[in-house]
Amino acid sequence: MNDTLSAVLKTLNERQYQAVTHNPEIPLQILAGPGSGKTKVLTSRVAYLVQEHKLRPSDICAVTFTNKAASEMRERLNLLIGEEQTKKLRLGTFHALCARFLRQWGKTIGLTDRFTICDADESKKIITNLLKAYDGQLKARRLTLQPGEVLSSISNAKAKGLSSADLFAQAENDIHQIIAELYASYTEALKKMNALDFDDLLVYGVRLYDKEPTLAAWCQHVLVDEFQDTNSMQYRLMLQLAAIHRCVSVVGDPDQSIYGWRAADVGNISAMQKNFTDCKQIMLEHNYRSTGAILGASIAIVSQDTSRIQKSLVTDHAQGTKPALLTFAIEQTEANFIAKEIKRLVACSGGMLTWKDFAILLRFNALSRTLEAALQKESIPNRVLAGHKFFERLEIKDILAYLQLIDNPNYVPAFSRAINVPSRSIGEKTIAAVLEAAASREKSPMELLEGIYEGRYPDVKPAVKGKIREFIPLHQQLRTMATEGGAVPDLIRHIITATRYEDHLRKTQPDWDTRWENVQELINYAQQFDQDPEDIVELPSVEGEDGAQETPLRLFLQASMLSTDTESDDDRNKDTNKVVLSTCHAAKGLEWPVVFVPGVEQGIFPFYRNDDVAEERRLLYVACTRAQAFLYVSYCSKRMTAGEIKDRTISDFISKIPADQKKVFDKAAPIVGPKCIEEVAKVLRRDPPDTDIVEKATKEFGSFAPPRENLLDPNANMYKNTIRGPGSHLAFSSSQPATFQPARMAGIASIANPYPTPSSSQPPPPSQSQIQPQTPHPLMAWASNKPKSSSGPKKFRPMPSSSQPPAGATATLSTFQSTSIDSLKAMKNLGAAETAGSPDMVALGRGAGTKRLGMGFSSGGYKPPSKRAKQE
DNA sequence: ACTTTACCCGTTTTT
DNA sequence: CGGGTAAAGT
Ligand SMILES: Nc1ncnc2c1ncn2[C@@H]1O[C@H](COP(=O)(O)OP(=O)(O)OP(=O)(O)O)[C@@H](O)[C@H]1O
Fold first, then answer.
1. Which positions in this protein are listed as binding ATP (predicted)?
2. pTM here?
3. Class of the CATH domain delimited by A321-387+574-701
4. Assembly ipTM
């Protein structure tokens, strides 16, 4: 065993070590909560199998949930067992692995090795076309059917291993029947164009091993990460891979199953115990990621799932800063707070925290808009981690279409796109004619077109011959280049030169410059696929058949379809010091020092169209458990939805937390100072920053909190006059006008603001000089108490209880002040000048009180929000 | 075949 | 509000 591995083994706790070194012959399930080191254990186990049990890396199959997770594991293994060994591993997602298997052995079940992977967009287009035939029928019966609906039904069926015939047999109504029919014709269409969709990769993978189980003979050990989110096809595949050697290790956490909508089935955990009766279970109960407070709040959320099995999970870290539960008037306010708060934490941590340490996790991508704008306004570098958006852009699809066509001239989606880029006046009609002619001659569309070009075939009815004088030679040149082993970047360069693609973009796209940059980025991305063919470790060939070639072009195209982002190895190190915006789903398995979860409102969390509320709750749990040191959960009382500003209420997942656990959240932004930062450093295992710097930043940021008008967007006049009057603590009941400050106000704002006036109207903002440097108490007496039940209807009031004085007490100024005075005394005793964030915080780097910034007047150089890339 | 304009609809999550 | 589409016009 090498030193690196033994060093890592030493860091493991006893259970983890037991899991890593567990007898490979005995199937293993590692079931454990978030941050317990499951992935670390799985990775170490792979290394251990190679180094200690002398398994050949090429005989090990390690399955991750995402490509990203695969690269991460690959990177870690590079360190543990070296690149030489790591690159031989069969490591990837189920989909990527199946693609490999099918390229190699697809002939066994009648596939060619040249199949193209059809992405969801193209699938949808195919369905849309097929659906047209049913227009009349649907209208006559007053039914509607969306392509997306059809697609997800088909996808669901495939994930469960159901054929179109199965679906047809169990159809209960017309819609079901039509869907089943569409499923059949869709399958046929894909077959004709020699394409597989994502689900097909699994379906055919399973079919392959069904037909020829011995093809799994190479597989000495299967390891599966995120096992709770495998669907039944994936599970079958795992069984098939393990069928011969019966060596399986999986890790998972039922509480983190969030892909039920994609037919994932937690039941696979118990299924596995039945399939492998000798299966050993190991539970890990130590959390190494988060502070006690974050873990406590997360568990309080997930524990509301009554059907859930309680399990123990404790952290070795300190209790740390309580997660904040904040409320805002509207999404822009929420976003602005988050932006400013990020700056505050960066400053107050003395630079220990940088942009990349922050993540904003959202229920769905559309929510990122406001956040992006707010971050940009504050000049905070950020990136949206969103699916394989990059490959869905029109300029990228254009280039890919040319490349796909080289490899698979039958692939109609690529054909229909490439043939008219740049515009050659070939429209729907002409394309249809070509396709029809091709079909009747049993040729690929490209072959037919070449025939027409060379005069071997007659032209089609809307004449095309004259329009393809450049297209056909280009295609032929590319084909030659590719056959002669031309590198992918060269192919792309040839495409853009021959088509004068830059000019084309300039002529047709208003934002052609960014698009052109994307094309360059694609070339850059393609670079990594020009590896030495020697490096590719082929799977064993079937006797008498040549193993199919995994050409650089095919590898590139495959990766383009399967991968979620363009982040290549080079990219990862440079230019990624950015705040991450991501969906909660995509955040699975990741971790950040600071996590914001905005939009924790009914309708968003749980999402209003999702019946599986428990899964939504788990999703929130997953999001919260990504945080290491700071967690902010927030919601708005109003939000723009469907073009209208609608009232919102806090998520049940928060409001239904039992009273005795309510204190898991602080209804105010945390207090940050040298002591706190020192603790954070421990949690993150980083060197604490210079105390002087922290203290200085702390003073600048925390010595005052400007009046809350500062939060107002000067453009959002409609709210200007709605700042509430006396009943401030009731202001959030939905019938009231919007208010601005987060719950903190009752404490901090009133301390800092010499005119806290919970009465009548708001006085004019005081001048800066009037603002007294004050520090709030870290433990504000009522900040964590739930409202007295007697004071309201059973329904939880959206108004954060922190702003609400105990029932019976009058919400007077003196109540607030006496507490703040106490707090000051306490502070002195502690000798710590901790500061609290307030949403009204001024921008970073300005001396306290020198400048008050309204929104839109950021100091950091205002950049207009970037145009969102239009797709397709 | 392509461009412009006027509605309409309504926000998932991903390999 | 903004994207996507159906109908109109060039
Ligand atoms: N024994 C250990 N000592 C120190 N740090 C550890 C140990 N085990 C795990 N960690 C750290 O804890 C963090 C979480 O580990 P990991 O991602 O493997 O957990 P996980 O169980 O896979 O989490 P999740 O379920 O959220 O995906 C990582 O930063 C990892 O380095």
1. 32-39
2. 0.81
3. alpha beta
4. 0.94
